[in-house]
Specification:
2 strands; elongated; mainly alpha; two-stranded antiparallel sheet; about 70 residues; Arc Repressor Mutant, subunit A
Length: about 70
């Protein structure tokens, strides 16, 4: 099991990353899809960090250089 991020709602890092990979772009969206951070709120800074880190690491375009033969 991955490390728990939200103890109140038993949401682990793997679940949060999965939601980010599916297109979530904000902590609010993570809350809506997982319930993480909706109880005591103590995990919100960590969720914010995961969202920020994912945005920095996420590929922004084609990973291969395309050769059109020109």
């Amino acid at each position: 099991m991955a490390r728990l991020v939200c103890l109140c709602n038993f949401v682990d890092e793997k679940e949060i990353l999965s939601v980010l990979k599916k297109g979530a772009v904000s902590t609010k969206e993570i809350q809506q899809h997982t319930g993480a951070g909706t109880s005591c709120g103590r995990c919100l800074p960590e969720i914010d960090d995961l969202v920020s880190s994912y945005k920095k690491e996420k590929p922004k375009g084609p990973q291969k250089k395309l050769d059109f033969g020109f």
